[in-house]
Amino acid sequence: MNLQEKQLRQEFPVKTNRIFFDHAKVSPLPRRVRDAVDAFTLDACEHGTKNYNKWMHDVERVRGKFARLINGDVDEVAFVKNTSEGISIVANGLDWNPGDNVVIPDIEFPANVYPWWNLKRF
């Protein structure tokens, strides 16, 4: 095992005792994500909304980092709670025209299909 693989495995403690294949719905968090969530939760528990502006600054900082990662603009990055919510926003936000088509795999997760099926009504 090389150093990079060892460091990656250390990010995911679940990997020390099992192999995790199902990342489609809920997956193990990397250690650094858990640490960030723990820090936010502790801050919110101890200070309420006192640090709200800092939290929003952190969100914008991460949005900027992700935009740079994908070579995009900050205003092209949106955080959503899950893939299904993101697909629903896209499906309902596009300017559809008669004859437009959507191709969906026949084994797609149901919540990712419903927004597209809903478009048939219009």
Give the class from helix and strand content and strand pairing. Answer: mainly alpha
Alpha plus pi helix count:
5
Shape verdict: extended
Biggest pleated-sheet summary: none
Mean pLDDT rating: 89
Reading the helices and strands in chain order gives: HHHHH
Q: What percentage of amino acids are in beta strands?
A: under 5%
Poorly predicted ranges:
none
From the N-terminal CA to the C-terminal CA, the straight-line distance is 55 Å
Radius of gyration: 19 Å
Helix content: 40-55%
Structurally, the number of domains stands at 2
Polypeptide structure, described:
With 122 residues, this protein is mostly helical. It has two domains: 29-79, no CATH class; 83-119, no CATH class. It is 53% helix and 0% strand. The chain contains five helices and no strands. Helix 4 runs parallel beside helix 5 (110-119). The longest helix is centred in the middle third of the chain and has 18 residues, at 52-69. The termini are far apart. The mean pLDDT is 89.
